[in-house]
Amino acid sequence: MAATSTGAGSIRARVRAEMTDEIKTIARRHLAADGANLSLRAVARDMGMVSSALYRYFASRDDLLTELIIDGYDAMGEVAEAADAAVKDRADLAGRWIAVAVALRHWAVAHPAEYALLYGSPVPGYVAPQATVGPATRPVLVLGAILADAHASGLLASETSPPAPPLPRALRPEVRRAAGAVAAGLPEQAMARGLIAWTELFGAISFDVFDRLKNTIDERSAWFEYQTRCMVEYLGLTDAAPRGGQPAHRGTRTPRGASRPRG
Amino acid sequence: MAATSTGAGSIRARVRAEMTDEIKTIARRHLAADGANLSLRAVARDMGMVSSALYRYFASRDDLLTELIIDGYDAMGEVAEAADAAVKDRADLAGRWIAVAVALRHWAVAHPAEYALLYGSPVPGYVAPQATVGPATRPVLVLGAILADAHASGLLASETSPPAPPLPRALRPEVRRAAGAVAAGLPEQAMARGLIAWTELFGAISFDVFDRLKNTIDERSAWFEYQTRCMVEYLGLTDAAPRGGQPAHRGTRTPRGASRPRG
DNA sequence: CGCAGTCAAGAGCACTGCTCTCGGATGTGT
DNA sequence: ACACATCCGAGAGCAGTGCTCTTGACTGCG
Asked: What is the pLDDT of residues A198-214, one digit of tens each?
């Protein structure tokens, strides 16, 4: 915009972008190693620079964190989308939900510090800027789309099972609005169940990543998948499995490919 | 212990205990104000002391944190136990579970920083010492007792509803062991459901405390109670209350008065 | 070629956890 | 009542942090 040097493809702009990326990469490495408290000086040392030089690229430590957070949400969103897309039978809603859940957990345990940044306790002075809310919704949208597809098939638990406790009147508008944002046309009751499953999902991932199941459950992966299957059944997605006589907890037969690493 | 000065009831010991308490109180205040990163120097300033003097009372910052964590678990445990005990109709299992859940959430939103310390992302360099595991189980035990009582009444969902997905063989010993520690005699299937409800509960509290529902659900209390009611139904605790024409989700008021309140 | 714009370095401020030493106060045993 | 052992607070100091500001060098573009 300055019309002089910093043209879009200018050399300076290119090396600057490379520097920015390298800083973020090293910062991620430090994040993974030392946990949440990221030291700018340490990052600078690793880059062979002096700490003040970093401020040419990031206005503050919080700015760096913000970019890392956005990248994290995007990574999770991408992982979720890829896992969903990898399920060939689009009508296998249980398989899709499980694949997404497993992929999200997989990413989380592989990047615990970044996950903590996204879904753990908020860092003290930091307030998430508006720029983070968009990426933050990406993983949710994937799950919402599955629910929407399930609803389109008319197979959700809320529509086939005995009704859950009725939604208090005060909640109905908000839940309806949430449904509109995430899964258009989804009835309130189904959206409520979806929110509960979403809560359970991230509760489970957090318990896993933060090691809250120590001395209780060691078979983490198996437990997580079982848990997810239970919630899938709670949502009623298993009824959607087209083939086979019995509905119920049929979701177990999800092809192993569901959890395969994204291509 | 040296047999000379520090007798159990000595004056020095008393004032020392008072100082320790005051330090912890001020530390809690700072924790609530500034978030997770607790500054020893700031605490010392507030006490009109110099930072090094604090080291007479706590070997390190982590030591202080440990004590705060233990206190926190104890506080939550106490809150949970009190909430459970306050339900006069011991047979109203749904009411008891809901009361405990609501009390836990209430404490959590009233002490967000302490809750984050207990259930949020682990603080970087800190590893929880063994002394914390005992208190940490207190809240869980309260919920486990409710499940055990429900099982004694033979009213759990796993025993009355169609079966959930079968527990993989690899998980069964661990789940059985967990059941033994928390709710003696509870069958595996019921324990699995309990673990899921527990996961959902703390997922919900964390979402609430960490403000992850911003712009989605504003009626936090109503949403939390609804959510809890759904999980109570999932557990099958509502079956303990004979549902008349009036809604079953009224859990707090259960007509069937039976067993004696325990001491 | 010269200038504008960019960048890294360095010094410095205020802050942190923590260590160590040095006096003064205090309670206890003789 | 005196002396000793203990405890406690203050202060200085070390190594580290985020961040600011100034200075000097480099460099791509007109």
From this structure: 999 999 999 999 999 99
User: What count of CB pairs under 8 Å joins A to B?
Assistant: 148
CB atoms A204 and B199 under 8 Å: yes
Q: Are residues B112 and B159 in the same domain?
A: yes
Q: Which nucleotides of C are covered by protein (CB under 7 A)?
A: 4-12, 15-21, 26-29
Same-domain status, A102 and A28 = no
Instruction: Identify the CATH number of the domain in which residue B110 sits.
Output: 1.10.357.10
Same domain? A51 vs A78: no
Identify the burial level of B166 via C-beta atoms within 10 angstroms of its C-beta, where 0-12 means exposed, 13-18 middle and 19 or more buried: middle
* pLDDT (tens digit per residue) in B217-242: 999 999 999 999 999 999 999 865 44
Judge if B17 and B136 occupy the same domain.
no
The protein residue nearest C19 (Cα–C1') is B52
Protein-proximal positions, strand D, CB < 7 A: 5-13, 16-22, 28-30
